[in-house]
Amino acid sequence: MELLLLHYPFTFLLLAVLILCWMYPAFRYFCKMTFYQVWIFTISFLVIIVALPRGRNCENMKILRMAILPVKHILGVKIVVKGKENLKTKKPCVLVLNHQNSLDIMVMMQILPNRCVPIGKKEILYMGSFGIACWLSGVIFIDRKKREESIAILTEVAHTMRKDNFHVLVYPEGTRNHSGSMLPFKRGAFQLAVRAQVPIIPVVISSYNSFYSQKEKRFTSGTSTIQILPAVETVGLSSDDVPKLTEQVRDSMMSVYQRISGMTNGGSHE
Predict the structure, then answer these.
(1) What is the pLDDT of residues 76-96, one digit of tens each?
(2) How buried is residue 90: exposed, middle or buried, by Cβ count under 10 Å (0-12/13-18/19+)?
(3) Pick from 180, 153, 178: which is nearest to 170 by CA?
(4) Are 68 and 118 in contact (CB under 8 A)?
(5) In terms of C-beta density within 10 A (0-12 exposed, 13-18 middle, 19 or more buried), how is residue 183 classed?
(6) Residue segments in the chain with a per-residue pLDDT below the cut of 70
(7) Are 104 and 206 in contact (CB under 8 A)?
(8) Rounded to whole angstroms, how far apart are CA atoms 180 and 105?
(9) Rounded to whole angstroms, how far apart are CA atoms 232 and 131?
Protein backbone atom coordinates (compact mmCIF):
# COMPACT_ATOMS: atom_id res chain seq x y z
CA MET A 1 0.00 0.00 0.00
CA GLU A 2 2.84 2.37 0.90
CA LEU A 3 4.52 1.62 -2.42
CA LEU A 4 1.31 2.54 -4.25
CA LEU A 5 1.06 5.82 -2.35
CA LEU A 6 4.67 6.63 -3.25
CA HIS A 7 4.02 5.68 -6.85
CA TYR A 8 1.08 8.04 -7.38
CA PRO A 9 2.95 11.34 -6.82
CA PHE A 10 5.50 10.38 -9.45
CA THR A 11 2.71 9.42 -11.84
CA PHE A 12 0.96 12.73 -11.30
CA LEU A 13 4.25 14.59 -11.70
CA LEU A 14 4.94 12.81 -14.99
CA LEU A 15 1.42 13.56 -16.26
CA ALA A 16 1.78 17.20 -15.22
CA VAL A 17 5.09 17.51 -17.10
CA LEU A 18 3.58 15.91 -20.23
CA ILE A 19 0.56 18.22 -20.11
CA LEU A 20 2.76 21.29 -19.64
CA CYS A 21 4.98 20.19 -22.54
CA TRP A 22 1.91 19.83 -24.73
CA MET A 23 0.38 23.16 -23.69
CA TYR A 24 3.51 25.34 -23.49
CA PRO A 25 6.19 25.10 -26.23
CA ALA A 26 8.68 27.06 -24.08
CA PHE A 27 8.30 24.54 -21.25
CA ARG A 28 8.89 21.71 -23.75
CA TYR A 29 12.00 23.51 -25.01
CA PHE A 30 13.51 23.79 -21.51
CA CYS A 31 12.64 20.18 -20.66
CA LYS A 32 14.21 18.79 -23.82
CA MET A 33 17.35 20.94 -23.60
CA THR A 34 17.78 20.06 -19.92
CA PHE A 35 17.37 16.37 -20.71
CA TYR A 36 19.87 16.65 -23.58
CA GLN A 37 22.49 18.30 -21.38
CA VAL A 38 21.93 15.89 -18.49
CA TRP A 39 22.25 12.97 -20.93
CA ILE A 40 25.55 14.31 -22.32
CA PHE A 41 27.14 14.86 -18.92
CA THR A 42 25.77 11.68 -17.32
CA ILE A 43 26.70 9.39 -20.18
CA SER A 44 30.17 10.97 -20.19
CA PHE A 45 30.80 9.45 -16.73
CA LEU A 46 30.20 5.98 -18.19
CA VAL A 47 32.49 6.80 -21.14
CA ILE A 48 35.24 7.83 -18.72
CA ILE A 49 34.95 4.55 -16.80
CA VAL A 50 35.14 2.46 -19.99
CA ALA A 51 37.83 4.58 -21.71
CA LEU A 52 40.12 5.22 -18.74
CA PRO A 53 42.05 1.90 -18.92
CA ARG A 54 43.05 2.69 -22.52
CA GLY A 55 44.05 6.28 -21.70
CA ARG A 56 43.88 9.16 -24.17
CA ASN A 57 43.19 7.50 -27.53
CA CYS A 58 41.11 8.48 -30.56
CA GLU A 59 39.65 4.95 -30.55
CA ASN A 60 37.68 6.02 -27.45
CA MET A 61 35.66 8.32 -29.72
CA LYS A 62 33.72 5.22 -30.83
CA ILE A 63 32.51 4.81 -27.23
CA LEU A 64 31.54 8.48 -26.91
CA ARG A 65 29.75 8.30 -30.27
CA MET A 66 27.73 5.21 -29.29
CA ALA A 67 26.84 6.80 -25.95
CA ILE A 68 25.58 10.11 -27.35
CA LEU A 69 23.72 9.03 -30.50
CA PRO A 70 20.71 7.28 -28.85
CA VAL A 71 19.51 10.62 -27.42
CA LYS A 72 18.33 11.63 -30.91
CA HIS A 73 15.47 9.11 -30.63
CA ILE A 74 14.36 10.50 -27.27
CA LEU A 75 14.47 14.08 -28.54
CA GLY A 76 12.56 13.14 -31.69
CA VAL A 77 15.30 14.17 -34.13
CA LYS A 78 15.74 12.11 -37.30
CA ILE A 79 19.04 12.47 -39.14
CA VAL A 80 19.15 11.98 -42.90
CA VAL A 81 22.60 11.46 -44.41
CA LYS A 82 23.32 12.06 -48.09
CA GLY A 83 26.60 11.50 -49.93
CA LYS A 84 27.92 8.79 -47.61
CA GLU A 85 30.09 7.49 -50.42
CA ASN A 86 32.19 10.66 -50.21
CA LEU A 87 33.33 9.69 -46.71
CA LYS A 88 34.43 6.17 -47.57
CA THR A 89 38.16 6.79 -47.35
CA LYS A 90 40.80 5.18 -45.18
CA LYS A 91 43.32 7.92 -45.93
CA PRO A 92 43.63 10.95 -43.63
CA CYS A 93 41.43 13.94 -44.43
CA VAL A 94 40.09 17.15 -42.88
CA LEU A 95 36.31 17.32 -42.39
CA VAL A 96 34.85 20.83 -42.23
CA LEU A 97 31.32 21.32 -40.86
CA ASN A 98 29.07 24.34 -40.39
CA HIS A 99 28.36 25.16 -36.74
CA GLN A 100 24.93 26.10 -35.35
CA ASN A 101 24.50 25.19 -31.69
CA SER A 102 24.99 22.47 -29.09
CA LEU A 103 22.83 20.02 -31.09
CA ASP A 104 25.80 19.77 -33.45
CA ILE A 105 27.46 17.42 -30.93
CA MET A 106 24.69 14.87 -31.42
CA VAL A 107 24.32 15.38 -35.17
CA MET A 108 28.09 15.29 -35.79
CA MET A 109 28.28 11.84 -34.19
CA GLN A 110 26.03 10.47 -36.96
CA ILE A 111 28.75 10.82 -39.61
CA LEU A 112 31.92 10.78 -37.51
CA PRO A 113 34.25 8.21 -39.14
CA ASN A 114 36.58 5.93 -37.23
CA ARG A 115 39.88 7.46 -36.12
CA CYS A 116 38.54 10.98 -36.45
CA VAL A 117 39.65 13.65 -33.98
CA PRO A 118 37.55 16.82 -33.61
CA ILE A 119 39.24 20.13 -32.85
CA GLY A 120 37.45 22.12 -30.18
CA LYS A 121 37.83 25.24 -28.08
CA LYS A 122 39.81 24.79 -24.87
CA GLU A 123 36.80 25.76 -22.73
CA ILE A 124 35.25 22.34 -23.49
CA LEU A 125 38.04 20.67 -21.53
CA TYR A 126 36.69 22.28 -18.35
CA MET A 127 33.08 21.18 -18.92
CA GLY A 128 33.09 18.51 -16.22
CA SER A 129 32.63 14.89 -17.23
CA PHE A 130 32.04 15.77 -20.88
CA GLY A 131 35.36 17.60 -21.10
CA ILE A 132 37.23 14.65 -19.58
CA ALA A 133 35.46 12.20 -21.93
CA CYS A 134 36.44 14.39 -24.90
CA TRP A 135 40.06 14.50 -23.71
CA LEU A 136 40.16 10.72 -23.35
CA SER A 137 38.68 10.47 -26.87
CA GLY A 138 41.58 12.42 -28.35
CA VAL A 139 39.83 15.75 -28.98
CA ILE A 140 42.41 18.45 -29.79
CA PHE A 141 41.83 21.57 -27.71
CA ILE A 142 42.84 25.01 -28.95
CA ASP A 143 42.93 28.30 -27.06
CA ARG A 144 41.59 30.77 -29.61
CA LYS A 145 43.09 33.67 -27.66
CA LYS A 146 46.61 32.30 -28.14
CA ARG A 147 47.17 32.44 -31.88
CA GLU A 148 50.80 31.32 -31.92
CA GLU A 149 50.06 28.36 -29.69
CA SER A 150 47.11 27.36 -31.90
CA ILE A 151 49.27 27.53 -35.03
CA ALA A 152 51.92 25.35 -33.35
CA ILE A 153 49.31 22.74 -32.39
CA LEU A 154 47.85 22.64 -35.93
CA THR A 155 51.35 22.37 -37.40
CA GLU A 156 52.07 19.39 -35.17
CA VAL A 157 48.75 17.78 -36.17
CA ALA A 158 49.60 18.27 -39.86
CA HIS A 159 52.87 16.42 -39.34
CA THR A 160 51.29 13.47 -37.52
CA MET A 161 48.06 12.97 -39.52
CA ARG A 162 49.68 10.86 -42.21
CA LYS A 163 52.03 9.02 -39.86
CA ASP A 164 49.30 8.02 -37.40
CA ASN A 165 46.57 7.78 -40.08
CA PHE A 166 43.72 9.76 -38.54
CA HIS A 167 41.14 12.30 -39.71
CA VAL A 168 40.49 15.73 -38.22
CA LEU A 169 37.09 17.44 -37.87
CA VAL A 170 36.90 21.23 -37.71
CA TYR A 171 34.17 23.88 -37.49
CA PRO A 172 35.78 26.63 -39.60
CA GLU A 173 33.29 29.29 -38.50
CA GLY A 174 35.01 29.11 -35.13
CA THR A 175 31.87 29.74 -33.07
CA ARG A 176 28.16 28.94 -32.93
CA ASN A 177 26.03 30.65 -35.53
CA HIS A 178 22.31 31.32 -34.97
CA SER A 179 21.91 33.58 -38.01
CA GLY A 180 20.53 30.93 -40.36
CA SER A 181 23.50 31.39 -42.67
CA MET A 182 27.26 30.82 -42.38
CA LEU A 183 29.86 33.05 -40.77
CA PRO A 184 33.12 33.75 -42.63
CA PHE A 185 35.46 30.75 -42.41
CA LYS A 186 38.70 30.93 -40.48
CA ARG A 187 41.66 29.53 -42.41
CA GLY A 188 43.12 27.16 -39.82
CA ALA A 189 41.44 24.00 -41.15
CA PHE A 190 42.56 24.81 -44.68
CA GLN A 191 46.11 25.62 -43.62
CA LEU A 192 46.12 22.26 -41.84
CA ALA A 193 44.92 20.36 -44.93
CA VAL A 194 47.44 22.09 -47.22
CA ARG A 195 50.36 21.49 -44.84
CA ALA A 196 49.45 17.82 -44.51
CA GLN A 197 48.59 17.58 -48.24
CA VAL A 198 45.38 15.74 -47.39
CA PRO A 199 41.92 16.27 -48.91
CA ILE A 200 39.18 18.42 -47.40
CA ILE A 201 35.72 16.87 -47.11
CA PRO A 202 32.99 19.53 -46.70
CA VAL A 203 30.00 18.40 -44.61
CA VAL A 204 26.86 20.54 -44.53
CA ILE A 205 24.22 20.29 -41.80
CA SER A 206 20.85 21.79 -42.69
CA SER A 207 19.26 24.49 -40.55
CA TYR A 208 17.55 23.23 -37.41
CA ASN A 209 15.03 26.06 -37.62
CA SER A 210 12.15 23.81 -38.72
CA PHE A 211 12.12 22.14 -35.29
CA TYR A 212 14.48 24.13 -33.04
CA SER A 213 14.88 27.81 -32.18
CA GLN A 214 16.72 29.12 -29.15
CA LYS A 215 15.29 32.58 -29.71
CA GLU A 216 11.69 31.35 -29.88
CA LYS A 217 12.25 28.70 -27.18
CA ARG A 218 10.92 26.05 -29.54
CA PHE A 219 12.04 22.41 -29.75
CA THR A 220 9.68 19.99 -31.50
CA SER A 221 10.44 16.76 -33.35
CA GLY A 222 12.00 17.12 -36.80
CA THR A 223 14.62 16.10 -39.32
CA SER A 224 18.21 17.21 -39.79
CA THR A 225 19.78 16.63 -43.20
CA ILE A 226 23.52 16.10 -43.57
CA GLN A 227 25.07 16.41 -47.03
CA ILE A 228 28.62 15.11 -47.43
CA LEU A 229 30.30 16.72 -50.45
CA PRO A 230 33.04 15.26 -52.65
CA ALA A 231 36.61 15.66 -51.38
CA VAL A 232 38.57 18.77 -52.36
CA GLU A 233 42.18 17.83 -53.09
CA THR A 234 45.07 19.90 -51.72
CA VAL A 235 48.01 18.08 -53.29
CA GLY A 236 50.33 20.63 -54.88
CA LEU A 237 48.73 23.59 -53.10
CA SER A 238 50.71 25.95 -50.90
CA SER A 239 49.86 28.47 -48.19
CA ASP A 240 49.37 31.08 -50.94
CA ASP A 241 46.37 29.08 -52.17
CA VAL A 242 44.65 28.92 -48.77
CA PRO A 243 42.54 32.12 -49.06
CA LYS A 244 41.08 31.05 -52.41
CA LEU A 245 40.60 27.48 -51.17
CA THR A 246 38.78 28.72 -48.07
CA GLU A 247 36.33 30.80 -50.09
CA GLN A 248 35.83 28.04 -52.64
CA VAL A 249 34.83 25.52 -49.99
CA ARG A 250 32.64 28.02 -48.11
CA ASP A 251 30.80 29.00 -51.31
CA SER A 252 30.07 25.36 -52.17
CA MET A 253 28.89 24.63 -48.62
CA MET A 254 26.73 27.75 -48.51
CA SER A 255 25.04 26.78 -51.77
CA VAL A 256 24.24 23.30 -50.44
CA TYR A 257 23.13 24.70 -47.06
CA GLN A 258 20.56 26.92 -48.73
CA ARG A 259 19.33 24.01 -50.84
CA ILE A 260 18.94 21.39 -48.12
CA SER A 261 17.69 23.56 -45.26
CA GLY A 262 14.08 22.68 -44.64
CA MET A 263 14.34 19.57 -46.83
CA THR A 264 12.99 16.48 -45.04
CA ASN A 265 12.32 14.00 -47.83
CA GLY A 266 14.73 11.61 -49.45
CA GLY A 267 18.06 10.32 -48.22
CA SER A 268 18.54 7.56 -45.70
CA HIS A 269 17.09 7.66 -42.19
CA GLU A 270 19.54 6.57 -39.57
Answers:
(1) 999 999 999 999 888 999 999
(2) exposed
(3) 153
(4) no
(5) middle
(6) 1-24, 178-180, 262-270
(7) no
(8) 18
(9) 31
